[in-house]
Amino acid sequence: MRVIIAMLLMLSGYAYADCLSIGDSDQRSYCYAKAGQGSCLSISNSDLRSACYAETGNGSCLSISDSDQRAYCYAKTGHGSCLSISNSDLRSACDAETGNGSCLSISNSDQRAYCYAKTGHGSCLSISNSELRSQCDALKP
Questions:
Q1: Residue 90 near residue 97 (C-beta atoms within 8 A)
Q2: Looking at the 3D structure of the chain, how many domains does it have?
Q3: Structural domain boundaries enclosing 96
Q4: Are 106 and 117 in contact (CB under 8 A)?
Q5: pLDDT over 60 (residue 141)
């Protein structure tokens, strides 16, 4: 579940072309909320819902229970850094998204490809996980 939340948090800061193809209802709601086409209210995962509220300007990262996700949220909203994130892949993605590193050290190939696509240095085509590819395809740089 942490990986899914991390993937969703990585979406922040982008406009979305089409969230409909995302199978998971929480992920789809998050996508629509980030696109300004829905709310965070229907997200059942409390950490993801809190991150959604923080990233849409309607809350803070404080109530996120997972410390890595909380630090990631603070970094994405400009209120912290990626340094305290203990998961190396999430820390690398955070660094890449905040302009302080690259996606190269992410060990999971799908996550690495997703990171490259998010940062404008690759495409979604090489992502084998269909759910992650749908999230990636929903991004509109």
A1: no
A2: 1
A3: 2-140
A4: no
A5: no
